[in-house]
Amino acid sequence: MATHNLLLLPGDGIGPEVMAEVKRLIEFFNKKGPNRFVYEEGLVGGASYDADKTSISDVTMEKAKAADAIIFGSVGGPKWADVPYEARPEAGLLRLRKDLDLYANLRPAVTYPALADASSLKRELVEGLDIMILRELTGGVYFGEPKTITDLGNGQKRAVDTQVYDTYEIERISRVAFELARKRNNKVTSMEKHNVMKSGVLWKEVVQQTHDREFKDVKLEHQLADSGGMQLVKNPKQFDVIVCDNLFGDMLSDIAAMLTGSLGMLASASLGEVDPKTKRRKAMYEPVHGSAPDIAGKGLANPIAMIASFGMALRYSFDMGAEADLIDKAIAATLDKGIRTADIATAGEKTVSTTEMGSAILAEMEALSA
Ligand SMILES: NC(=O)c1ccc[n+]([C@@H]2O[C@H](COP(=O)([O-])OP(=O)(O)OC[C@H]3O[C@@H](n4cnc5c(N)ncnc54)[C@H](O)[C@@H]3O)[C@@H](O)[C@H]2O)c1
Ligand SMILES: CC(C)[C@H](C(=O)O)[C@@H](O)C(=O)O
Ligand SMILES: [Mg+2]
């Protein structure tokens, strides 16, 4: 019997609401065995700021480093609009990613058959869609220095953000892209802007070299990120794995969310290298969506992105592929029965609450594993 230690970080807004559904899934798997999950909860984001005046405490960071996996909800919201920049809720999430070196962010965009009409695109464009956006998560303009606002003294201010990429950062994310593609449809599309950015020139060069050296069997295409975004909504099924930098990946994955019907559907895994001591990959599982202040506290949030992120934890951290498949099948079966939270309902469809959606998925899991 294996025991897995999880750190749950529900965060702010809808984070705690969708995390409550993950706790029910943990109970389900603990009852079923033989794997057992033990979890501790911690504060992150605005919730942590309110308690400790920091977006994540050193104590919570230590727990994150020690956990077998972190399950993250969401952070941020208007309540913390005026806190110092360094202590803003989002800084806690960025510190987790950076300090744990979680450089590979897998953001699959899968359109469930029952939801093809919930997408803002035509059914035939998205039906059967299954693409993987691989976002570099610990470099680029998110972390480059300098990052400043300077008063120029003439009534003007100057803001500077810096995009930085070293060869090794591009090489390691490229490898993940090619390895993922080998297990999927064997195609990688790399997106950057080498026509404007030096980091784009290096990105394209290193991805190509890594391909030519180690992954000649995988089909590689390069696309400028702006027209790549256009292609993503024009003909999304042409893609298999898309690999891009931190900022382009942030934007392209939110765009991809609408191919699946809602941001409430998009799960993600943020992975680092294998820890030599534990032999386990450092990992955090986080839905792509944020704290959704417009619907927080109302029981309206779609828990599927969070539940599917937990499913990714089973698959990528705990070698529980069959259990991860069970979650995916239960989500599909629930959607097939027409059960919808408001974000994925089409006009006139009856909607359910966050908890009701969680209960429906659990019921399908019970039925499928009976
Ligand atoms: N990983 C994270 O913690 C994360 C990610 C993105 C944004 N944020 C933060 O969240 C706050 C709000 O940002 P935003 O409004 O731009 O993005 P958001 O993702 O929170 O919400 C965008 C829209 O999608 C809807 N939505 C998102 N998740 C949903 C779900 N599970 N079910 C139903 N509808 C859902 C929201 O209601 C909203 O209309 C900001 O402070 C931002 O920095 C945090
Ligand atoms: C909250 C924010 C820091 C984060 C990001 O920009 O990476 C979010 O938008 C995401 O997509 O995970
Ligand atoms: Mg984002």
Describe this structure in words.
There is one protein chain. This protein has 370 residues and is an alpha/beta fold. It folds into two domains: 1-110 and 263-370, Isopropylmalate Dehydrogenase (3-Layer(aba) Sandwich); 119-260, Isopropylmalate Dehydrogenase (3-Layer(aba) Sandwich), CATH 3.40.718.10. It is built from twelve helices and twelve strands. The protein has a ten-stranded mixed sheet, with helices on both faces. Strand 6 (144-151) and strand 7 (157-162) form a beta hairpin. The longest helix is centred in the N-terminal third of the chain and has 18 residues, at 15-32. It is globular. The protein starts with a strand and ends with a helix. The model has no long low-confidence stretch (mean pLDDT 97). Bound molecules: nicotinamide-adenine-dinucleotide, 3-isopropylmalic acid and magnesium ion. The site of nicotinamide-adenine-dinucleotide (NAD) has 22 residues, from helix 4.
Key structural traits:
370 residues, alpha/beta, Isopropylmalate Dehydrogenase, 10-stranded mixed sheet, two-stranded antiparallel ribbon, binds nicotinamide-adenine-dinucleotide, binds 3-isopropylmalic acid, binds magnesium ion, amino-acid biosynthesis, Isopropylmalate_DH, manganese, oxidoreductase
